[in-house]
């Protein structure tokens, strides 16, 4: 009896010892895996984050990295004064695991804050609110209620907030609901599958669809599948909080300075401009008409150091690439030059495509010089507005912007004031008077959209992951300088 008791005690001691050893090993393992606390980041000079490839997070645009999340993280690294290193996760599950194990500082990946995830990671402040949306193909009847999801194949990304939402619906109101989860499919692939008719429905976040819809004209959103949800960066649970607090301060500053809104405007601001028909027509006409003029756009782009696709986008907006185009107001030719501008640019025959492109490109380059003190991409957008409505009116709108306490060098601010030039109360105090100020706003947004489509059209084949060849997504990234945030200590 006694003997047995001692053995048991001994066993307990041994067991306890083994347990503490295990805990120690685990702690060491966790600690050594976790080289990404604030101190480590500052000491090593490297901020390593994890993200995923998608139009709203991270992608390669020609030869440069891009994406809303990427740019946010890049600005944060600049704010900390360190270098950014990006790791791309293969799946959402890997992404969370990497954060949990401390192999990265945090995940910047368009992650939805959910209760289930909050058990594993700590979220920083939310920087955007989204809803989950059901996507369907336009040639079928618009789904009206959740029940419609029972009438076709529904596919979502595995381990996503969308899959979580479906599970929630299934366990509460729709036990018969079924769907397929794909680990290897990224959101644009799912949308493409709906467009091709390979599946009937998918669910994506509203911001994702906003960024994508311009490229997939045959799909539409039916309704919201979830209430508004927050997107935020995810940190390891055992983080020391210092980095998390830095992120909080950073987002606070980004918001206060308007830089967050500016970044959002750049990635999402122009996407809604073109309706689906517009996109289809554009792509068809690009196939039919652009080839004839492409080398002219390229040559002139090189001459003036302007991306040729931007010049081509202007040409499309002006005339749909028709050399004989004319407007009621007497503007003519492929680049729609006025008589005065044509003369100024040495164009004798406005209906000659080559002369029109040479003159139009030189005129645009000239306008850009006028705005040369302004940072890109705003400089380009303001010059485009000037091409449309005249530099004088743009200057007037800039003055109104300044008077109203906003930034006259920021397109986002000026585009809100341009339409005021139609109102007497405002234009009577300006130098150049009345203008149809809403026109340049549409004009610029259309051109941004056309530009994006031209970039997209050049990509080999739609690729869903960050391939060597690049990605199908773009956000007018030739024009992406948003000033870095410097820390005020
Ligand atoms: N916000 C979604 C999530 O957190 C993104 C996933 C996706 O689009 O696949 O799961």
Mean pLDDT across all amino acids? 84
What compounds are bound to the protein?
glutamic acid
Instruction: Please tell me the CATH architecture of the largest domain by its name.
Output: Orthogonal Bundle
Shape: globular
* Major sheet description: 5 strands, mixed
The gyration radius over C-alpha positions equals 27 Å
Give the count of helical stretches.
Answer: 19
In the CATH scheme, the class of the largest domain would be Mainly Alpha
DSSP strand (E) fraction?
5-15%
Class per helix and strand makeup: alpha/beta
Side-by-side strand order of the widest sheet: 4-1-5-14-6
CATH topology label of the largest domain = Lysozyme
Distance between the termini: 70 Å
Low-confidence stretches: 25-32, 461-483
Secondary structure: helix percent: 40-55%
Brief write-up:
The protein is α/β, with parallel strands linked by helices and 489 residues long. The chain has 19 helices and 14 strands. Residues 92, 110-112, 157, 160-161, 187, 204-205, 208 line the site of glutamic acid.
Can you describe what's shown?
With 489 residues, this protein is α/β, with parallel strands linked by helices. It has 3 domains: 38-127 and 232-257 and 468-475, D-Maltodextrin-Binding Protein, domain 2 (3-Layer(aba) Sandwich), CATH 3.40.190.10; 130-231, 3-Layer(aba) Sandwich (D-Maltodextrin-Binding Protein, domain 2); 276-458, Lysozyme (Orthogonal Bundle), CATH 1.10.530.10. It is 49% helix and 11% strand. The chain is built from 19 helices and 14 strands. The strands form 4 sheets. It has a 5-stranded mixed sheet with strand order 4-1-5-14-6, with helices on both faces. β9, α6 and β10 (180-182) form a beta-alpha-beta unit. α16 (391-403) packs across α17. The longest helix is centred in the first third of the chain and has 32 residues, at 2-33. The radius of gyration is 27 Å and the shape is globular. The protein starts with a helix and ends in a 31-residue tail after the last helix. Mean pLDDT is 84; it is low at 25-32 and 461-483. Glutamic acid binds next to β11.
